[in-house]
Design goal:
This protein has one domain: Membrane associated eicosanoid/glutathione metabolism-like domain (Four Helix Bundle (Hemerythrin (Met), subunit A)), CATH 1.20.120.550. It contains six helices and no strands. The longest helix has 31 residues. The chain starts with a helix and ends with a helix. Helix 3 packs antiparallel against helix 4. Keywords: Lipid metabolism, Lipoprotein, Lyase, Membrane, Mitochondrion, Mitochondrion outer membrane, Oxidoreductase, Palmitate, Transferase, Transmembrane, Transmembrane helix.
């Protein structure tokens, strides 16, 4: 019995679910990288812990730092939604969810780098497509839920 068959028998998961797991780890790496960028921005713009956001009246570079921080914070805010949709939708549609998850990660990268320029509008040039990926993941998760109810 091959490893894929073992995963399906023991865990009840299709072997393609491995792609879902790898995409989730990819997002973790992106999150670590964004956090590192916030740390660099803290040093560059003199925003010290535990300050979450810089105040413009106290720091001339507040907007620049806040844009870096906000790009990461927004990604953290959506991370639980992304993970739940990937994990659940991927049980029925692992390859579709892995592809949508990869698109989401790519869009989040561009969302963050656009935001980090200091011009919040630049976050949407490519970053806006992440919402289409989330919509696709929602559809996959709805399909999973309906399939469970009908089974």
């Amino acid at each position: 019995m091959g490893d894929g068959a073992v995963a399906e028998v023991v865990l009840g998961l299709p072997k393609e679910y491995g792609y879902v797991a790898l995409v989730l780890v990819g997002y973790c790496f992106l999150n670590f990288w964004m956090g590192f960028q916030v740390g660099k921005a803290r040093k560059k713009y003199n925003v010290f812990y535990p300050t979450l956001y810089a105040v413009e009246s106290e720091n001339k570079d507040a907007k620049l730092f806040n844009c870096v921080q906000r790009g990461h914070q927004n990604s953290l805010e959506l991370m639980p939604v992304f993970f739940v949709l990937m994990i659940l939708g991927g049980l029925r549609h692992p390859l579709i969810c892995a592809a949508l998850g990869s698109l989401y990660i790519l869009s989040r990268f561009f969302y963050f780098t656009g935001y980090a320029t200091g011009d919040p509008q630049k976050r949407l040039a490519i970053g806006k497509y992440g919402f289409l990926a989330l919509l696709g993941l929602m559809i996959c998760t709805i399909s999973f839920g309906i399939n469970l109810i009908r089974a």
